[in-house]
Design goal:
alpha/beta; Cobalt-precorrin-4 Transmethylase, domain 1
């Protein structure tokens, strides 16, 4: 390893009290703080009386700024990497800089903290043993529906982030593609208007339609269960995925693995059905 240390620091997702004593100490000790948005981070730093040089690496200029930060690290500077909220690189900018630091042999130390997906999952009432974090879904309806179709047979709990202006559209797509599964939706975790609803998707949609849509959302959906399913139901699943835009081979592979049945037999039967 060469040069200074890059500290990847998680910051509060809402309540400022969620920052760790270790994170505060390191933010006070580093030579420079690389922030997603310096204006946003200044509010956090000022609250805790921290005054350090700042450099912005907001998404559109992340690649360019990463090189500048790498040079500072090579020269021996210790730098803290923070995003507006949560952990850099997890549905936030920061991954480009972290990869470049790895390539250059620079020491990287994670400083964990608040996580919206973990905080929401642990109170969801859904399976927490295995889960898939899918981040933000595509904004375009067709791409979003195709991505959901690819996940339709995942047996683990699925976790998504969603923006307020797309939350109802995404939930309706989930209901259409996944069926009326158990789910949980959380918004504004750790903030004043924190809200968590647990029910089947159809009822959650009704609840949100009757509430104020605002803030960032975490959506959690129970995994697919093949218990009691028949070969005919597997064929119906293949047909459904084909209608969602997946290719036949891809659809058959997903369904066959989920139902633990022969891909060849399922493929041949799907051809016989002429769909």
């Amino acid at each position: 390893m060469t040069g200074g240390i890059l500290y990847v620091i998680a910051t509060p997702i809402g309540n400022l009290e969620d920052i760790s004593a270790r994170a505060l100490r390191i933010l006070k000790e580093v030579d420079l703080i690389a922030a997603e948005d310096t204006r946003h981070s200044l509010r956090l730093l000022s609250h805790f009386g921290i005054s350090k040089p700042l450099i912005s690496y907001w998404s559109e200029r992340e690649k360019i700024k990463a090189e500048e930060i790498i040079e500072r690290l090579k020269s021996g500077a210790d730098i803290a990497l923070i995003s507006d909220a949560g952990t850099p690189g997890i549905s936030d900018p920061g991954a480009v800089l972290i990869r470049r630091a790895i390539e250059e042999g620079i020491g990287i130390i994670p400083v964990p903290g608040a996580s919206a997906l973990i905080a929401a999952l642990c109170v969801s009432g859904l399976d927490t043993e295995t889960f898939t974090f899918a981040g933000f879904l595509p904004s375009k309806a067709g791409q979003r529906q195709k991505r959901l179709a690819e996940l339709a047979h995942a047996t683990e709990t699925m976790i998504f982030y969603e923006a307020p202006h797309r939350i109802l559209e995404s939930l309706k797509d989930m209901l259409d593609i996944f069926g009326d599964r158990r789910a949980a939706v959380a918004k504004e975790i750790s903030k004043m208007h924190e809200y968590i609803v647990r029910d089947h998707l159809s009822q959650i949609i009704i609840s949100l339609q009757n509430s104020v849509i605002a803030g960032e959302y975490v959506v959690m959906i129970e995994g697919f269960s093949k218990e009691g399913s028949s070969f005919e139901e597997a064929l119906e699943e293949v047909q459904s995925l084909l209608k969602k835009g997946l290719g036949r081979k891809e659809a058959v592979k997903i369904v066959a693995e989920s139902y633990n049945i022969s891909k060849k037999e399922l493929y041949d039967k799907s051809l016989e059905g002429k769909f």
